[in-house]
Each structure stands twice: as structure tokens, then as C-alpha cells.
Amino acid sequence: MKHEAESALDRARRKAYRRLIPIVFVSYIIAYVDRANVAVAGIPMAKDLGFDNVVFGTGSGIFFIGYFLLEIPGSLLVERWSARKWISRIMLTWGVMAALTAFVKTPMEFYGVRFLLGLAEAGFFPGVIVYLTHWFPSRDRARALSYFLIAAPLAQIISPKISNLWLHIGTEEMVNGVLVKHPELLGLDGWQWVYIIWGLPAVILAGVVLFGMTDRPSQAKWLTDEERNALEAELAREKAAGIGAGHGSVVAAMFDPKVLLLAVAQFFAVTGNYGVEFFLPKILQRWYGLSLDALTWYIIIPYVFLLIGILVIGWNSDRTRERWLHAAIPLYIGAGALLLTPILKGSLAVTLVLFSVTFFFIRGYLGAFWSLPNLFLKGAGAAGSIGLINSVANLGGFFGPRVIGGVEKATGSFEGGLFFLAGCTFVSGTILLILGRWHRRSVASDPVQGASTASASPTA
Predict the structure, then answer these.
(1) Mean pLDDT of all residues belonging to the chain
(2) Which positions ≥6 away from 145 have C-beta within 8 Å?
């Protein structure tokens, strides 16, 4: 009987991976392209519209101010209402706003459409994280999160060269000593078409999410009764055993010191990684004078390593059932590599190696990190905390690009900004290291919590 129940659970877990992960994975690819394609499209865009790096950094980052406002409500709607309906609404509106970026003319219009894009997309990322806890037991969570999270680097791997197919529209370039003029298409330049063409898939995927996702195992007609019951029983067992045996209420969870420290740690980490990400093309172009064709090849390399880092670190976190060190140590290594990047600049190969190491670790920690709130929270409390952590953290997505753009304008160099971003990443790792020790001591001093956490997920 026990063997049959375990087999049914394993079948349900495999079906959940095959059915749900591809939908959220593809959705996040499009979300990330629409959020981050400003890094590539912004080069000709800034030239055409006369935007300096302060305008570019502010506009790139102001996305996260809009994002901040609806993070917590979005997470709670997924927990208490419907993930598929809320995420479908998100995708429809962000697709429209992404396409409208093509028509900005002034800095204020750029700021406005980026703010509205963030507002439209708010709740998607934490909503998916909460949604995955409705389907995947704790032993699968870091791996499921890693499969979801690798959509971001994959988006950055595939999108530059695809975008480059359109970036030449409406531009002039020297080919074998001859000035070649590429005509506009329907009166629009290439960077405008980048925003429009990448916005359309989000609108289409809104329908796929609405009809393809299932909110809870109890509603899954694609599971047998035996599989459905086994998966629900496992999730209920973990909940009863006390995964997150602390707060279940939203208000209490959001004032938990551990939640607040996780939010601060993630703020510094996001400051570092988005500051690098949005300015990576501009940095490589400034340091090595690369053409758009060459640039859109070279910027792919760090994202390949980022993808590998998320998979490897997430897999090892699940294998060892350890979360805190798998979140903290990669940030230290990433900070070290980023610190060396401006010091050792001069060789494109060395710079690409250092950025690749940076990206491997500076985002590879995420699968382990997003498993942390469920170690001491549950239910709506966990959902609200994930929304709070992500909303506070994503303010770093405004702060990082804004600072590196401001430092570049003041000094004429990216070096000082990169040192600052490395310092932010180091601070994040330190907070997580200290918080992990605090959590382990609190579990050791509370036999009830220690037993329940160990029985549910020996990751503390």
C-alpha cells in the first residue's frame, strides 16, 4: 500500500513538471525579454532620442518602482484566488505596455511607459513562486524554481541575436567602406520594432495561461484520482508537519525579522545584478568598441553561464537539502569576480570570463534563496512574505542602474559603479550568512520547530 502511494505521488510530481513548468517557463522568458530588452534596444534608442546614461539608467530601473506597488497584493491573489486568472491578466497588460515603449520620444515618456510596464508585470514573479508551492513538495521546490528561473538567462541568450535582426532597420552603417542606409519599416526604426515584436507573444500567452494552467491539484483533470490524492496528501502532510511552523498570517509574517532581513539581503543582491545586467552591453561597447553585430554575440556568453549556475546550484541545494549556504556563498564569489572586472579590464577575453563567473554566481543562488521563506512560514504568511521580499528587493532594480548611470555621467567611467555593485552583492551574502546562523540556532533551541522542519524538509 505504501509503495502504491509513493508511486502515485511520483507520477503526480512528474506530470506536474511536464504540464506546468513549460507554461511558466515560456511566460517568464517573454516577461524577462520585455523587461530587459531595453539593454540592447536602448543603445540605438538612446542615440536617436538623445538620452544620456542617467536617463537610460533611470528609465531602465523605474520599471521596478511600478513593480513594487502591486507585488504583495499579487502574491495574495495567487494564494487566495486564482493563479491562472491573475497571471493571464498580467501577461495581457504587460504585452501592451511593452509594445508601447516603441513610441516614446522624451525622457518623461520613457519613464512613464517603463513605470506602467512594471505596474503591469507586478505580481508575476512572486505569484509563480507561490503557485509552485501549491504543486511541488519541499523536496522538489529548489529544482522546480531553478527550472523556472533559468528562463531569465535563456531569454538573454536567445533575445539579443533575434533582436539584432531588426535593430538595423532605419540605421546607417559602413559595409566594406560603403555607407549603407537601411530603410525604415512602416516609418519605424529597428529599436521600435524590437519592443513591438517582443510585446506580442505576451498577449498570445495570456490565453495559454488562462486555459492551460491549473490552480490546485484538486482541480487537475489531467491527474488520476490516485495521483491527485497522493499529491494533496503529501502537501497537506508537509503543512501539518509545520513547514514554516511560524507565522501563517500575512501581517505577522511581514513583520518577522527574518522576512525583513531577507528583503534587505535581496535588495542588495538585486541592486548588484540588475545594475550589471542593464549596462553590460554599454560597458562592453565602451571598453572594446564593439559593433552591434559583435556585441549581441558576446553578451550571450555570460548568460549561458548564468543558466548553468542556476541549474547547478539549485540541483546541489536539493541534493544536500541545504539552503542558506547555497544562497550566501555564491553571492560572495560573484562579488569577487565583479570586483576584479574593472581592475583587470583591457582584454575582452578576460572581461568576458569575469562577467561569466559573476553571472554564474550572482544569480545562481536564486533557487536556494526562494526556498528560504517556506522554512519558517506557511500559507498566506509565506505568500505575503514572498511578495514583500520581492517588492522591496526590486527597488534595487531601480537603484542599481540609476547609480551606475549616475556614476558614469559624473566620472566618465563605469569602474566606480561596478565597485559599488560588487559591494552591494557582498553585503547581501553577509546578511544571508548571518541570518542562516540565526535560523539554525533558533531551530536547535526549539525542539518542536526543529522536528517539524526536519520531517518536512531537512534544509534548515
Answers:
(1) 82
(2) 129, 132, 314, 366, 367, 370, 371
